[in-house]
């Protein structure tokens, strides 16, 4: 009668667990560093905060422009605003005023 005798190998027991570890490591890495991963989330939140700050600055500037434009409309034309705009546009000053010349910032 024939009997099969072969040596038991321990490497067969390690194949499935090692494949599972590699599988989990691959997806774990991409869950953190991938395009939609945790690290990307923090980068997007920082970018959103930066853009929100820019938006707030632009809105404040627009409100200032709208206020200044409102002062120049007919019926609400203020003498001070008209005088300020004329001086800037024409580079004029009153005879009794002191003019300080500043160097222009050339780039």
Summed up:
The chain has helices at residues 11-33, 38-72, 79-90. It is mostly helical.
Kindly state the percentage of residues in helix: 55-70%
Q: Treating each run of at least 4 consecutive H or I residues as one helix, how many helices?
A: 3
Helix and strand sequence: HHH
Largest sheet: none
> What coarse outline follows from CA principal-axis ratios?
rod-shaped
Roughly what is the average pLDDT, rounded to an integer?
85
Please tell me how large the radius of gyration is. Answer: 37 Å
* Counted beta strands: 0
Strand content: under 5%
* Poorly predicted runs: none
The N- and C-terminal alpha carbons lie at a distance of 100 Å
Describe the structure.
The chain has 107 residues and is mainly alpha-helical. The chain has a domain of 66 residues. The protein is rod-shaped, with a radius of gyration of 37 Å.
Please give the structural blueprint.
Elements: H1 11-33, H2 38-72, H3 79-90
Key features?
single chain; 107 residues; mainly alpha; 65% helix; rod-shaped
